[in-house]
């Protein structure tokens, strides 16, 4: 069963509170802190009174517990089957996991149970030993807060190299690719993992050297005509982005969408894919990009 | 009944969260709630779980509430919080911690030994604790054995209970679970696993093109996997269409199709009434009722496999193959467009005609389904032809309409 109290935020919070009692460090303030971290914003209104009234036989009103061992829940069958299913995903080779505990556990699903039907065909080579080694070096660098030296080819196939602080590994389900976002510059620089030729682990960096890269956010506004189920399609298609929608009348909506500057061309073609159902109303430079494509189209057809 | 931020079943909240997250323009009066109070309660719950991601806007029709998140900027899917809001009784929570504590020393115990231990070692810590009756404990032990939290072994006439001996080590899994809990279609289970680590994981991963909303359909997807792996027919309870009426369909689940660009998930299943493969949106499935096992399951999987080379996305049209052909003008310096064609062509083929002309062709059941993708090449489409003339006409008339929206030739830049 997927929806069960054994996985609940409340049970997690109570387990953490009991651990704190066992360590002898519990105060009302730390209870609130734990509830805030593990549960929801209104949870203190339920958990604190329940403890004080001794409703749950886990901890009494004097904040003492009869629980003798550190609360630990074994993995459920569902969790084991999910972990076992990950072993059928080729990307598991990127991680050094100990699979020995899952021998004989039936996977919840297999990689073949899915069809990602809009996924690009040139995904990363997850079985390539160099690719795997580079991925693991970067992950180690992130874990141990170390710099890396990377030699890579840029999009124009020009060989570049340099020292970088790895910030995040970004995965795109559409591209089926990992990119390394690096810190240190004013804006983050991205390096496609599949374009790395060499990657070496360097010395640790000082924590203050890691300056999270800034992101250049842009906004596009468009009006949406709800014909041919366009409202549903547009709302779901752009649900990976921050957006705000207003209803103007029964068929027309106004949408504002935020995106990163580097993704402008991608957003442009995503908008174009909806044809005349979307009319971009701002900013002017974005409208200009669409007009440019339409002008190119008129020229190609002539 | 008094308000609680916890819920008994996920089904009710699923639709509200989708409305707030994907659409976000409806005011209280526009929700098809059973009552104003149920809208208020669900909104308050979602605020309690996801307050930091919620926004409000005053409209002439009332206040609209919406969830707005850039999925690229957050390491964890906030919608998983809803899956962690299951309600429980005081017996549930008390027995959970007491049982696992009693068995934590690794020794097996009978039910009466467990009851004795509860009375002697736990209830005495409380002022007015009522003893647990045998049937409550028996039910809980059975439930936990089914979940895999404890093992029940028959010794003579009675069962003895212990913690599972094959406790897999999670130490080496942290980063893998952190990644897959966000990317995997059943990632919510990974999020449950992550909760087992006492200290929070460092956010090493971010995700682009991630559809957080998929999390709401995880329960349905789990039921479908169970059916797929048990080779069972199911009765689906579906909702959809303009009138939002429910209907039922008996099908044999075969595969899950995930749109990584459209934000939708589908079940591919054999439909007994239509006698062929059909696709069902997961967000339209309300319930999955298992029926009987199908012995010749492979036969139906082969039906889908046979259809696959002619399915562009998830549409089968009238099952007549339609031939579509597009010629693109691509300057040799724009080789990235050729790369786009190569990686995005799916069941189609591409061929270079001359220095600047490339041909894309596909034979599919429903050429109309290619339309959004074809439009992404606006600016380079020299010709488009289709054996279904309606598709061809619609493409060009839509393009004219788009051109007119931006002023057409009169407003050329």
What can you tell me about this protein's structure?
The complex is a heterodimer of chains A (302) and B (413). Chain A folds into four domains: 1-73; 77-113, no CATH class; 129-209, SH3 type barrels (Roll), CATH 2.30.30; 217-301, 2-Layer Sandwich (Alpha-Beta Plaits), CATH 3.30.70. Helix content of chain A is 31%, strand content 24%. Chain A has helices spanning 9-22, 28-38, 44-52, 77-86, 129-144, 230-237, 264-272, 284-301, and strands spanning 114-116, 146-153, 159-172, 177-183, 189-192, 196-204, 217-225, 243-247, 252-260, 278-282. In chain A, strand 4 and strand 5 form a beta hairpin. The longest helix of chain A is centred in the C-terminal third of the chain and has 18 residues, at 284-301. Chain A is globular, with a radius of gyration of 26 Å. Chain B is of the alpha+beta class. Chain B has helices at 11-23, 36-50, 80-83, 90-102, 111-122, 134-147, 174-183, 187-194, 218-230, 297-307, 335-344, 371-375, 389-405, and strands at residues 54-59, 62-67, 109-110, 151-155, 158-162, 205-208, 232-240, 245-258, 265-271, 276-281, 285-293, 322-329, 349-352, 357-364, 381-386. Chain B has a five-stranded antiparallel β-sheet. Chain B has a four-stranded antiparallel β-sheet with strand order 13-14-12-15. In chain B, strands 3-5-4 form a three-stranded antiparallel β-sheet. In chain B, helix 7 (174-183) runs antiparallel to helix 8. At the A-B interface, helix 1, helix 4, strand 1, helix 5 and strand 3 of A face helix 1, helix 2, strand 1, helix 4 and helix 7 of B.
The two chains with the largest interface, and their residue counts, are:
A-B, 127 and 148 residues
**Count of separate structural domains of chain A:** 4
How many individual domains of chain B?
5
Let me know the number of strands of chain A.
Answer: 10
Number of helices of chain B: 13
DSSP strand (E) fraction of chain B? Answer: 15-25%
CATH C-level class of the largest domain in chain A is Alpha Beta
Sheet/helix structural class of chain B: alpha+beta
Q: Indicate the multimeric state.
A: heterodimer
Helix content of chain B: 25-40%
Contiguous runs where pLDDT drops below 50 for at least 5 residues of chain A: none
Under CATH, the topology of the largest domain in chain A can be stated as Alpha-Beta Plaits
CATH-defined architecture of the largest domain in chain B: Roll
């Amino acid at each position: 069963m997927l929806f069960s109290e054994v996985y609940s935020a409340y049970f997690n919070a109570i387990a953490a509170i009991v651990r704190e009692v066992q360590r002898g460090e519990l105060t009302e303030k730390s209870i609130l802190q734990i509830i805030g971290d593990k549960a929801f914003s209104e949870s203190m209104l339920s958990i604190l009174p329940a403890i004080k009234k001794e409703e749950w036989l886990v901890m009494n009103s004097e904040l003492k517990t009869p629980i003798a061992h550190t609360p630990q829940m074994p993995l459920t069958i569902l969790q084991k089957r999910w972990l076992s299913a990950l072993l059928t995903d080729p990307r598991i080779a990127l991680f050094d996991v100990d699979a020995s505990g899952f021998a004989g556990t039936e996977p919840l699903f297999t990689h073949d149970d899915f069809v990602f039907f809009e996924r690009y065909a040139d995904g990363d080579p997850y079985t390539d030993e160099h690719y795997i080694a580079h991925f693991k070096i970067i992950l180690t660098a992130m874990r141990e807060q170390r710099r890396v030296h990377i030699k890579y080819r840029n999009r124009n196939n020009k060989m570049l190299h340099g020292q970088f602080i790895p910030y995040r590994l970004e995965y795109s389900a559409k591209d089926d690719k990992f990119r390394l976002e690096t810190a240190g510059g004013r804006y983050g620089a991205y390096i496609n993992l599949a374009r790395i030729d060499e990657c070496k682990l360097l010395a640790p960096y000082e924590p203050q050297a890691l300056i999270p890269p800034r992101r250049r956010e842009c906004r596009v506004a468009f009006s949406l005509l709800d014909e041919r189920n366009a409202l549903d399609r547009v709302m779901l298609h752009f649900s990976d982005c921050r957006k705000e929608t207003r209803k103007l009348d029964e068929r027309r909506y106004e949408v504002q969408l935020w995106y990163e500057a580097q993704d402008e061309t991608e957003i442009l073609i995503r908008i174009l894919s909806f044809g005349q159902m979307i009319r971009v109303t701002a900013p002017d430079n974005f409208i200009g990009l669409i007009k440019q494509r339409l002008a190119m189209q008129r020229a190609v057809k002539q | 009944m008094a308000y609680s931020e916890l819920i008994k079943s996920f089904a009710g909240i699923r639709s509200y969260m989708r409305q707030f997250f994907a659409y976000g323009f409806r005011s209280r009066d526009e929700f098809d709630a059973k009552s104003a109070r149920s809208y208020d309660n669900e909104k308050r719950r979602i605020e309690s779980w996801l307050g930091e991601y919620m926004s409000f806007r005053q409209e002439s029709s009332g206040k609209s509430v919406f969830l707005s998140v850039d999925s690229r900027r957050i390491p964890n899917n906030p919608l998983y919080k809803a899956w962690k809001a299951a309600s429980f009784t005081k017996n549930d929570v008390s027995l959970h911690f007491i049982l696992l504590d009693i068995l934590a020393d690794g020794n097996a115990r009978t039910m009466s030994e467990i009851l004795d231990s509860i009375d002697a070692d736990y209830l005495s810590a409380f002022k007015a604790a009522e003893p647990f009756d045998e049937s409550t404990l028996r039910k809980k032990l059975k439930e936990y054995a089914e979940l895999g939290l404890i093992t029940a072994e028959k010794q003579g006439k009675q069962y003895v209970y212990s913690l599972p001996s094959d406790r897999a080590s999670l130490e080496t899994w942290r980063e893998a679970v952190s990644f897959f809990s966000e990317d995997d279609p059943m990632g919510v289970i990974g999020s449950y696993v992550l909760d087992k680590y006492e200290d929070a994981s460092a956010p090493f991963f971010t995700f682009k093109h991630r559809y957080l909303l998929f999390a709401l359909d995880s329960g349905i997807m789990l039921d479908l996997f169970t059916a797929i792996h048990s080779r069972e027919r199911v009765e689906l309870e579906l909702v959809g269409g303009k009138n939002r009426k429910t209907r039922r369909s008996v099908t044999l689940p075969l595969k899950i199709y995930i749109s990584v660009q459209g934000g939708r998930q589908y079940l591919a299943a054999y439909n007994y009434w239509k006698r062929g493969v059909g696709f069902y949106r997961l967000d339209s499935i309300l319930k999955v009722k298992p029926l009987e096992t199908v012995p010749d399951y492979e036969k139906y999987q082969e039906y889908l496999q046979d259809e696959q080379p002619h399915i562009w996305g998830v549409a089968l049209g009238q099952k007549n193959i339609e031939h579509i052909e597009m010629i693109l003008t691509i300057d040799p310096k724009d080789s990235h467009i050729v790369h786009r064609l190569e990686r995005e062509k799916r069941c189609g083929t591409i061929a270079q005609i001359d220095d600047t002309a490339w041909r894309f062709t596909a034979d599919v059941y429903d050429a109309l389904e290619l339309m959004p993708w074809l439009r992404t090449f606006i600016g380079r489409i020299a010709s488009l032809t289709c054996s279904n003339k309606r598709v061809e006409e619609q493409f060009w008339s839509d393009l004219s309409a788009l051109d007119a929206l931006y002023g057409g030739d009169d407003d050329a830049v």
